[in-house]
Amino acid sequence: MMHLRVASVFLCAMLAIVVACERLPGAPKASIPVVVGSPSWTLATFNTNCRGCHSQGAEGAALPLVNPGYWKIANDDQITKVIALGQGVSMPGYLDENGGPFSADEIDALVKGMRSMWGGEPHDGNPVLPGTISPTLVVGDAVAGALVFESACANCHGANGPAGSVTDPMYLRLISDQGLWSAVVYGRSELGSPPWNSPMPNHPNGLTPTEVADVVSWLATKRTQ
């Protein structure tokens, strides 16, 4: 009889252990599979591959992608092409065929995911901008650009400007000419910088394409080699 009681107690103890392992803090639950294109996947992919240069704050050397002004102007085909093939010497291509980590479908999902989170409806047109991937580039005049900067930009972006100096040597060493162009055209909403065609000091209608090219050319001359 004693043996029967001991066996019963043992079986009850084993059953309790098995049941406990099925709930916390027992055996871990199976991980939830990551869905390509989901918000969590998009954010993780951005943080891992893009944030270092295209950060959400003011610390990134390139244009922040969390920028409504950028998504209002650029279309998905342009963005996909830049991610896949790279741009200039600073940004490599991310398409697997070019040695990158993403398939074409993953790049497409990343673009759609970022637009869904930060940009609103896709832009399907090809806007006329002062120099970009598609439109014709405008050759800038650095001498004229110095005057444009002084009249339209220096109040906020001069040496002691409240939005941060864009003539700082370290900043100019980190950012490419394309990055400078992007910052002028799309603006930096997190710094209070308007897009190129928005009202600015002494420029109520914004800048012209030529003025954008001029000011970028002048800023490029301030970069130390």
Task: Give the helix/strand layout.
Elements: H1 2-20, H2 39-49, H3 68-73, H4 76-85, H5 104-118, H6 142-157, H7 169-174, H8 177-186, H9 209-221
CATH architecture grouping of the largest domain: Orthogonal Bundle
User: Which range does the strand content fall in?
Assistant: under 5%
Find the CATH topology of the largest domain.
Cytochrome Bc1 Complex, Chain D, domain 2
CATH class of the largest domain: Mainly Alpha
Per DSSP, the total helix count is: 9
**Uncertain spans:** 131-137
Work out the radius of gyration.
26 Å
**Basic shape:** elongated
Number of domains: 2
- Total beta strand runs: 0
User: CATH homologous superfamily of the largest domain?
Assistant: Cytochrome c-like domain
Which structural class is indicated by helix and strand composition? mainly alpha
Q: How can the largest sheet be summarized?
A: none
Distance between the termini: 93 Å
Round the mean pLDDT to the nearest integer and report it.
77
List SSEs in N-to-C order.
Answer: HHHHHHHHH
Helix content range of the residues, please?
A: 40-55%
